[in-house]
Design brief:
Layout lengths: L3 E6 L12 H12 L3 E6 H4 L1 H8 L4 E7 L5 H14 L4 E5 L1 H5 L1 H7 L5 E3 L4 H8 L10 E5 L2 E4 L29 E4 L2 E2 L4 E3 L2 E2 L10 H5 L3 E2 L2 H13 L4 E4 L8 H13 L5 E6 L6 H10 L1 E9 L3 H7 L5 H13 L3 E6 L8 H14 L3 E3 L11 H8 L23 H18 L6 E4 L26
Parallel strand pairs: 1-2, 1-3, 3-4, 4-5, 10-13, 13-14, 14-15, 15-16, 16-17
Antiparallel strand pairs: 5-6, 6-7, 8-9, 8-18, 11-12
Helix pairs in contact: 1-7, 9-10, 10-11, 11-13, 14-16
């Protein structure tokens, strides 16, 4: 009997948007291209019990999953149960957390047999094909009671990146975190797709580089091949979730032209750096079906942007917001409130910046989430605020609270949320229905630090 492989993500008890396990679908596609039998299950859809039940069927030998730092405990629990179901199975893990802390992860979870560092497609194929582990680049593995590692694997060339095996999941099961209505039509299920890997930036808070290394992009025609396949299956709503699919105007123009040539009419949103969006690119995106642009503004303070290593100016951020809105798309502002170097003045600058650009959506956590491997994380380690041992515990993540307490950060977030709702503009033929009642300020904030707001809010 041919040995089978199950790739699965655990159920994580979240009520947020449901995004498909695209990373596993890339692995599955690569494995199938080399004649390996693969099944993909998403615990968010089917639950962990269904995963265990499937793995208990005859023929399975390999189990693979992705581990993300905030969700690691969900993955660990599933891995332990997998080993109980089939003690002889080979458990393979990958993802950002494993790529940054492979040795710690394997020592902490003895049920893991192989940890994949970086991209996993070629590595997975070589493991499933029975290649000697010592000859497979980019892994940690166990042998004779010891942990061994192999040399780093080079990043994949764009032409070697397969089209995800979308046929292995129910693509209609995934949705946006909000209901989007455009031209009186409610958009259906939304799938996340990727035209590139890596990022041209190296921001202090981001761990993208650890997994993907340098930025690479597939061809526009190859990308539209994937979208066309899904479009023919009834999906016309997408989140192009790259860190930046618009790094080159040539790609954006080729993408739009390819959609038009094939008569593919879709709705989509993208994410990008502010220094990559131009009026020309914004107009082309709108013509192609884009309705929303997620922009990593992060802060309205030039001092903080410089400390983050953004290599961008506040003025560029303002121009990016203007370009998106002038093209008729929503501005989705990605912000970090409570960065390591933030103070009252810089937060005040950020609120003033948001009042100036008036984004339709403001997304930020109550503070800076410290992710292993990032420069901000290393800074917090030097301060003694966090150590690598934190990731051995069950707390999902840690927010940096040296400059501001959690309550103070919560107060700022409350203020920003309400500022956003008062100032939001309805200039587009788009109606966003979020499952919350609109809240207005009933009284002025008593302020940060338990005293007067110090200029944080000026009505």
């Amino acid at each position: 009997m041919k040995q089978k492989t199950l790739l699965a993500l655990p159920h994580k008890h979240s009520q947020d948007a449901l995004y498909p396990p695209v990373g596993l679908l890339y692995l599955a596609a690569a494995a199938r291209d080399h004649d390996h039998e693969v099944c993909v299950l998403d615990g968010q859809i089917v639950g962990d019990e269904a995963i265990l039940e499937e793995f208990n069927r005859p023929g399975y030998r390999y189990f693979g999953t992705t581990i993300l730092s905030p969700l690691r405990e969900h993955s660990y629990n599933l891995i332990r149960q997998i080993k109980c179901v089939r003690p002889e199975s080979i458990v393979i893990v990958g993802g950002a957390h494993v790529s940054i802390l492979p040795e710690q992860t394997m020592r902490h979870i003895p049920e893991i047999d192989i940890a994949v560092v970086g991209e996993g497609e070629q590595t997975m194929v070589e493991i499933l094909s029975g290649k000697d582990l010592k000859d497979i680049p980019g892994i940690w593995y166990r042998k004779g009671g010891k942990l061994l590692k192999t040399p780093q694997r080079a990043p994949l060339e764009p032409s070697a990146i397969p089209i995800p095996a979308w046929d292995l999941i129910d693509i209609t099961a995934y949705r946006s975190y909000e209901e989007i209505v455009i031209d009186k039509r409610t958009l259906g299920p939304m799938l996340a797709v990727y035209s590139s890997r890596g990022c041209t930036g190296s921001c202090s808070f981001c761990s993208t580089w650890w997994v993907w290394k340098h930025w690479r992009q597939i061809s526009a025609a190859r990308f539209v091949d994937e979208i066309e396949y899904l479009y023919e299956k009834g999906i016309d709503h997408f989140f192009i979730a790259d860190d930046s699919m618009i790094n080159t105007c040539q790609f954006v123009e080729a993408f739009s032209a390819e959609l038009q040539r094939r008569n593919i009419q879709i709705y989509f949103k993208i994410a990008c750096r502010a220094d990559k969006i131009t009026p020309t690119i914004a107009h082309t995106l709108k013509q192609a079906g884009c309705y929303e642009v997620h922009i990593g503004f992060e802060s309205g303070s030039q001092r903080i942007l410089d400390a983050m290593g953004k290599k961008i100016t506040v003025d560029q951020n303002v121009r990016a917001a203007d370009a998106v809105r002038q093209a008729g798309m929503r501005v989705y502002a990605l912000m970090i409130i409570g960065h390591i170097h933030d103070d009252i003045n810089s937060i005040n600058e950020t609120i003033n910046f948001l009042k100036m650009i008036k984004p339709e959506v403001v997304a930020s956590m109550n503070g800076l989430m410290l992710l292993p491997g990032t420069r901000d994380y290393q800074h917090a380690k030097r301060e003694g605020f966090i150590s690598d041992d934190f990731w051995l515990g069950k707390e999902p993540y840690k927010i940096y609270t040296v400059a501001f307490s959690e309550q103070e950060l919560s107060d700022v977030r409350y203020m920003i949320d309400n500022q956003k709702k008062i100032l939001s503009r309805r200039l587009l033929p788009i109606q966003v229905q979020v499952g919350k009642k609109l809240r207005f300020l009933k009284e002025r904030m008593t302020g940060l630090l338990g005293r007067k707001p110090a200029g944080l809010y000026r009505g």
